[in-house]
Amino acid sequence: xxxxxxxxxxxxxxxxxxxxxxxxxxxxxxxxxxxxxxxxxxxxxxxxxxxxxxxxxxxxxxxxxxxxxxxxxxxxxxxxxxxxxxxxxxxxxxxxxxxxxxxxxxxxxxxxxxxxxxxxxxxxxxxxxxxxxxxxxxxxxxxxxxxxxxxxxxxxxxxxxxxxxxxxxxxxxxxxxxxxxxxxxxxxxxxxxxxxxxxxxxxxxxxxxxxxxxxxxxxxxxxxxxxxxxxxxxxxxxxxxxxxxxxxxxxxxxxxxxxxxxxxxxxxxxxxxxxxxxxxxxxxxxxxxxxxxxxxxxxxxxxxxxxxxxxxxxxxxxxxxxxxx
Length: 325
Ligand SMILES: NC(=O)c1ccc[n+]([C@@H]2O[C@H](COP(=O)([O-])OP(=O)(O)OC[C@H]3O[C@@H](n4cnc5c(N)ncnc54)[C@H](O)[C@@H]3O)[C@@H](O)[C@H]2O)c1
Prior knowledge:
alpha/beta, Rossmann fold, UDP-galactose 4-epimerase, domain 1, binds nicotinamide-adenine-dinucleotide
């Protein structure tokens, strides 16, 4: 099959493209390269540099494609609170134009990179897919908005759409050739590894007085290659005529910030002093996925544990101390 991967020059998209190519699928990438990296683009893929809201670029990129994996978007919570309009534009309005173009080309099949941020502050954990959706930031709200658009396209035009709600994504391509390069980096594993690599004396953890065993926030981490396998399964399902749906993608296991720091220290053999800073607004104490639906219906499982994620992210960090060129 041939798949279009939007955002295929970014962190999750580039790993997914390589996984799909290795699995024998042809792949086209559509990316503005605004936050992505040409160096992350696999040479076996076809690259169209353009925006998901640009009808001509999407029409070109869709040529011969059976389905779309939509990873493109803006991902920074704090930025979304400063510029909510931009987030709704890039994460919902422009992708809506892409859907209309897909409809015109009769490609009504899509897998969407959504997020656990659509749930907001959890009422109960682990969080299953029927948990109320009540995002507490504009990033989560913009992703939820597009989820709803997909539902209406299913109702009206019979689109087959899979919405995948990722928890905390970490890790890298295992040989360290593809990895996370966000600017600024807000994700905890690369930030800890960066502090350790650059010999900084301390690493600030946001809040130490949560109702968790060690007082720091607990999160569910999922390896980016496990995510890529889920993408492949979801794409094959809907491109092969199967039904869409909504699935959490997390390991189902929680680690506190302090446990993540310890795992990083074990893997790197380096240490960093933890400084407990104030809580960050809107940070829930515990986010944990119930992943039973993905295991049953997609026959997917999270294979890599936290140490594997950290060790692959460390390999990437050592290969690329300054990110991509
Ligand atoms: N990284 C995580 O932990 C995480 C967690 C939950 C959900 N997600 C979702 O996964 C997706 C990918 O995240 P990532 O970490 O790889 O982000 P990323 O910033 O590394 O990649 C996003 C890519 O999309 C491209 N892009 C942005 N707007 C575009 C547009 N309008 N048209 C074409 N290309 C555009 C960027 O240039 C970039 O290459 C996002 O949709 C995000 O919401 C990520």
